[in-house]
Amino acid sequence: MGFRPATLPPNDASNAPEPIGMDEQLREACAGEPKALAALVRANQRSVYSLALRMLGTRDLAEDLTQEVFMEMTDNLTSMQSSEHLTFWLRRVTTHRAIDQLRRRARIEIRSLDELLLSDRQAPAGQASAAHASAAAEEVDPVWQRHSRLLLAELTPDARAVMLLRYQEDLDPMEIARTLGMSINTVKSHLKRSLEFMRQRLKVAADNRREKLESQLREALRAVEPSEAFTEALLARLASERSRELGTEPRSEQAPARTGAPNDAHDAGVAGRRVASRTGRYSGWWLPASLAASVLVAVGAVQHLKAEHQRELGLEARREVIEALRVTNQKLDLAYQAVRTQSIALSEGDPGA
Amino acid sequence: MLVALLAVAPVPAWSAPDPRLVLPEFAALSQKATESVVITLDPGLLSMAGRFLDGGDPKDAATLEVIKGLKGIYVRSYTFDRDAAYSQADLDAVRNQLSAPGWSRLVQTRSKKTHADVDIYVMVVDKAAIGLALIASEPREFTIVNIIGSIDLDKLRKLQGQFGVPKLDLDATPSAPAGKSK
Between vectors from CA A198 to CA A197 and to CA A203, what angle results, nearest 5°? Predict the structure, then answer.
């Protein structure tokens, strides 16, 4: 079942940065050039994967959805009118697919072991690749960021998609309406209600300006890259499918061939296993290697979880100490002001006092 | 029978007054509040927070200095969007505890202008403060703070301005007309 590429609205003004030569790459990919296809995937995977991850909540589901979307993309490549159209189409398909999944599931477990490991490993890369690091963003507490991401899971699927397209993809309400097939008023209503919900749940001070909250949300919802192992496995799978369609030699056996440092073992295991399980082709050595890697990762993960939990508690306690002292100081000010005014009044009324 | 039981029951020895207040849940009020701050920091959490304060950073170092020697900080603060959303009776459960031996009122202020009342109590044992309680009530807000341990108010005041509280120049001539508080 294919997702028919929607025609790009004539006045669409997608503000996604367009890499130079992406239209050329699209033409070459349509002609069956594997490098061009890989370049298209790499250029768009950050957006697709991040939308999937934050919509669905777990890395496994996000990787599955990313793979599905790019598989569908290759099936529909020839229908893409331009690189802009491709970007629009990918966002549209990813969000619709994710919303469909969420509606089918009563509740998605938002935290998984994979996600915990992922967040730590990917944060530096994401930070490094971020083109901007605003002053407001630097003030954002990591615990606050984590909470805001977790709070997304409490929004309805539609509201979550709207928030992500606004603050992760930086689309304006009109573009969001086109992408999700909603009215502009519905988009604005989702944005308003979701922001108010987050403001209340994150205990954002009433005097915190909307612009500042939005800036903090942009930082918290910044897009992240999928693991390199997953990308490689995905590209191999896409190349294999493409070759099969074009009647050339399949190349998918190379998919899980990547091994690496201990930290990469888990990525390679998960990504390779996921892609291989879909193609039904496990190479003989891969299963035991993957199991061994999983055991190693599980042991490390327990330690990691403990340390992570302690760290979160500590940061939360620190924040609460500062808040408690702030509140106390504020009330002491009230008393000090009153006492001081009283003493001034006494001295004015009775010069001899 | 009762007499016999009383006779064998352990007689409580003299115990030091406890500066820890039993703070109500305020469940009904928290539903009505537009903003609420509920902080419960026991000795374990305070110690953990201390490890995450950077002694090299001046702000964190000052905070660290203030919480050194504290055994607990408990805050309940509720803000409402209309006047009289809570009653003084809600605070009586706390005020009553402050009439227990050991507590003495340090400051009581009543402002006719802002209708802000602040009461500060300290518990002193052997000439050392071992606890502080603060009740501040305004028409749309009330705050209860209970600090266990030896709190140095001077050090706390030095943090003024570091937590977003406007720094007041206490030596300047006040702009407010005299006689607005009692």
Answer: 105
Asked whether A85 and A4 are in contact (CB, 8 A), the reply is: no
Residue A314 and residue B52 in contact, taking contact as beta carbons nearer than 8 Å? yes
CA atoms of A105 and A12, how far apart (whole Å): 33
pTM summary value:
0.43
Helix (H) or strand (E) holding B74: strand B70-79
> Rounded to 5 degrees, what angle do the CA atoms A213, A225, A156 make?
50
Residue-wise pLDDT for A294-331, tens only, equals 777 777 777 777 777 777 788 888 888 888 888 888 88
Half-sphere exposure of A97 (CA within 13 A, CB side): 27
Query: Within the 285-344 window of chain A, which residues sit less than 8 Å (CB to CB) from chain B?
Result: 310, 313-315, 317-318, 320-342, 344
Interface test with B, best of A199, A311, A313, A318 (most B CBs within 10 A): A318
Domain span at residue A97 reads 22-220
CB contact under 8 A, B37 and A348: no
pLDDT tens-digit series, residues A137-178? 445 567 777 777 778 888 888 999 999 999 999 898 989 988
Q: Does the beta carbon of B168 lie under 8 angstroms from any beta carbon of chain A?
A: yes
Residue closest to A174 by CA, chosen among A160, A191, A155, A157: A191
Q: CB A328 to CB B109 under 8 A?
A: no
A197 to chain B, closest Cα gap in Å: 12
* Structural domain contains residue A299: no
DSSP string covering A237-271: HHHHHHHHHHTS---GGGGGG---SHHHHHHHHHH
Q: How many domains does chain A have?
A: 1
Nearest CA-CA partner of A200 in B35, B25, B31: B35
Residue B153: other Cβ atoms inside 10 A:
17
Task: Name, in order, each residue with C-beta under 8 angstroms of A222's C-beta and a sequence gap of 6 or more.
Answer: A126, A130, A168
